[in-house]
Design a protein that fits this description.
With 240 residues, the chain is an alpha/beta fold. It has one domain: NAD(P)-binding Rossmann-like Domain (Rossmann fold, 3-Layer(aba) Sandwich). The protein contains seven helices and seven strands. A seven-stranded parallel β-sheet has the order 3-2-1-4-5-6-7, sandwiched between helices. α2 packs parallel to α3 and α3 packs parallel to α4. The radius of gyration is 17 Å and the shape is globular. The chain starts with a strand and ends in a 7-residue tail after the last strand.
């Protein structure tokens, strides 16, 4: 059981792509699940849309078929990284029930569904890493559904830790600070003045680079001592 596998959602850009690069350097085979493909060589891509609650029923066989060439014994050491997320601008005053459900499906329910697909083939030494946010344990205005879903993701991680006790599979939730990604830039309308203001709230005076997060995700996935941990990686935020 020497093959090491990374299964990641949203591995085509930003933090996800940086994580793929890092795991590849460490000899992992990579399966990326996202609507757009990762452009890195030797990555196996599955174009799946997890926004539909029934996606898992249709996708389970596709995922196992994609992994089977790497798992001659039927199981493998798998690092499962739940990275895909949806970030909307919304408020507790105006968010609709459907919009709330749509964000929760992508950010919380889909990771649970993917866990259930992969756990039967995850050998001892595997890991489940949830990518949360600074907003997993605090809040800002205008991001109601994202804040709520990222808080829920911490709960899902803690439940994972307890429910898998004795299985030799560890889990944790990484909470990145403000990272220089397409998603953040789109959220602020590509306004550099806003990005500069965000960076001024970090003790290092800059945004995190995706490659920094990629290295940290690898570390979290390969250290069982971090089981059940909420791991903040934000360069130190200035509290005001």
């Amino acid at each position: 059981m020497s093959t090491k596998i990374l299964v990641i959602t949203g591995g085509s850009k930003g933090i996800g792509r940086a994580a793929v690069e890092q795991f590849q350097r460490k000899g992992y085979q990579v399966l990326n699940i996202s609507r757009s493909p990762c452009d890195l060589a030797e990555v196996k891509n599955l174009a799946l849309d997890m926004s539909d609650a029934g996606w898992d029923t249709r996708a389970s066989a596709l995922i196992h078929d994609a992994l089977s060439p790497w798992m001659p014994e039927g199981r493998a050491r798998i690092a499962l990284v739940h990275n895909a997320a949806r970030l909307d601008k919304d408020s507790v005053e105006n968010v609709t029930a459907q919009a709330f459900a749509d964000v929760m499906q992508i950010n919380v329910i889909a990771p649970s569904q993917l866990n259930q697909i992969l756990l039967p083939v995850m050998a001892k030494g595997s890991a489940i890493v949830y990518i949360g946010s600074t907003l997993s344990e605090k809040a800002v205005a205008g991001s109601c559904t994202y804040v709520t879903s990222k808080h829920a993701l911490v709960g899902l991680m803690r439940a994972t830790c307890q429910d898998l006790a004795g299985r030799g599979i560890h889990t944790n939730c990484i909470c990145p600070g403000f990272t220089n990604t397409e998603m953040l830039r789109a959220h602020v309308g590509n306004d550099q003045s806003i990005l500069d203001a965000i960076a001024s709230g970090v003790t290092y005076g800059r945004l995190i680079e995706p490659k920094e997060m990629g290295k940290f995700i690898y570390s979290a996935a390969t250290q069982p001592v971090l089981n059940g941990a909420v791991l903040h990686a934000n360069l130190g935020q200035v509290e005001r």
